[in-house]
Amino acid sequence: MRKYRALVSTIIDEDAVVNRLPNVIPGVLTHQLDGQVVAYDGQHDRVHLLDATTGCVLNLLAEKTWTEEALLPELKERIGVIGTPDLLALAIEELTKAELLQSSSPGLRLNDVSRREAVRRVAAAGIAAALIPSVLTITPSTAYAQASACAGSTNLPSGCSCTGNGNCASGNCSGPTGAKTCV
User: Which end of the chain is more exposed for a tag (fewer CB within 10 A), N or C?
Assistant: First the structure.
């Protein structure tokens, strides 16, 4: 009976470890790109550029087969980075901020440690600053604004907001004050 209880206790403890790792939200598509990972989040219509470390952690979490203890050496195997609990927690924090992980997942947290302190610990472990987890998020609205024909203040096409005739390619800015557009 004691052996059975010990076995059940071990199984419960292993499940608790597995459950500490958060789940990736459904529908995230990833692609390797020059040592980084591009992740598309269809739920929020966002594109994320992940550094190699964070991208590897995202891919490992998506596989749903890793424990924290097994995931750390796997980072070294896949991208040559010595995985530390702080590095893993930083990557998970970045993925959480980018909303790539399910919010109901318990996940690993940087408990009682500031991000600055965790980065210092990771650097002290010999991990290069370039490998410290980071995520750059691009939203379609940012891309649309960059590509908009209405960006700028001169030679604006018809339909763009204007303040005077000099703004418009046609030389004709009309409409009520505060709602003028190029015609």
Answer: N
Cβ-contact 68, 20 below 8 angstroms: yes
Q: Cα separation of 61 and 75, whole Å? A: 12
Q: How far is CA 23 from CA 89, 133, 163, in A?
A: 14, 18, 50
Which one is predicted more confidently, 162 or 26?
A: 26
Mean pLDDT of 10-19: 43
3-state secondary structure string, the chain? CHHHHHHHHHHHHHHHHHHHCCCECCCEEEEEECCEEEEEECCCCEEEEECHHHHHHHHHHHHCCCCHHHHHHHHHHHHCCCCCHHHHHHHHHHHHHCCCECCCCCCCCCCCCCHHHHHHHHHHCCCCHHHCCCEEEECHHHHHHHHCCCCCCCCECCCCECCCHHHECCCCEECCCCCCEEC
Phi-psi sector, 175: left (phi>0), alpha (psi -120 to 50), beta: left
Alpha-carbon distance 112 to 94, whole Å?
A: 17
DSSP bridge partners of 43 = none
What's the token pair of residue 103?
A: 């919010």
Quick check: pTM over 0.90? Answer: no
Question: For residue range 108-117, what is the model confidence (pLDDT) as tens digits?
Answer: 554 545 555 6
